[in-house]
Amino acid sequence: MSDHDKKNASQSALSLKGERNVYWNQDISYGQYLDLEPLLSCQRPRSDVHDEMLFVIIHQVSELWLKQCLHEAHAAANNIMVDELRPALKMLTRVARIQEQMIQAWEVLVTMTPADYISFRDSLGQSSGFQSYQYRELEFLLGNKHPGLVEVHRSHPKNYQHLTNVLNAPSLYDSWPQKLSATPEHFAKVLSHVLPRTQH
């Protein structure tokens, strides 16, 4: 590298001199806040096939997004029950955006050919995405309830009991008719918190 190139590289390099807000000895770091060590140790492919790591990560990311969907959907249901529709609609909009993100993520998985998948499929044993208890919970919460599907999770008592509780509780789909069947005065009050007020 010539002296000129070295000078240009030096000038373009990131310098933290004078940056008073950069702390290296902080109480909590980025990695600690996100608990990255245990998170990044969860990817344990069961074969030596290169593509299995992608398969594991795609599905783990989906489960993390499902966790956020449940966080939003349960909160939305609680807000609907107390007539707080504006935050509820915001939360449900977020769920819709997350679902779009999840669908787009499969574009990465399509880079794996059927032959690639078959090369490690035996490592999965009898496991299937159909067994995702978070997906089942979201399905029940949104109103798509099929009691027989709980039986898939009977071998995991904690998940089985939780899903049974969600199955038997009112869904988001059930909550809206309750609001629509309210008295006109109550319904008008509810809508006033959602629709923008007309300026006169």
Features:
200 residues
What's the helix-strand series? HHHHHHHHHH
| End-to-end CA span | 70 Å
Question: How many helices does DSSP assign?
Answer: 10
Overall SS class: mainly alpha
Helix content: 55-70%
| Backbone shape | extended
State Rg. 24 Å
Low-confidence residue ranges:
none
By DSSP, the count of extended strands is 0
Mean pLDDT score, rounded?
A: 85
Strand content: under 5%
**Oligomer type:** single chain
Q: Let me know the largest β-sheet.
A: none
Characterize the structure shown.
The chain is mostly helical and 200 residues long. 61% of the residues lie in helices and 0% in strands. It contains ten helices and no strands. The chain starts with a helix and ends in an 8-residue tail after the last helix. The model has no long low-confidence stretch (mean pLDDT 85).
Question: How would you summarize this macromolecular structure in one to three sentences?
Answer:
Helix content is 61%, strand content 0%. It is built from 10 helices and no strands.
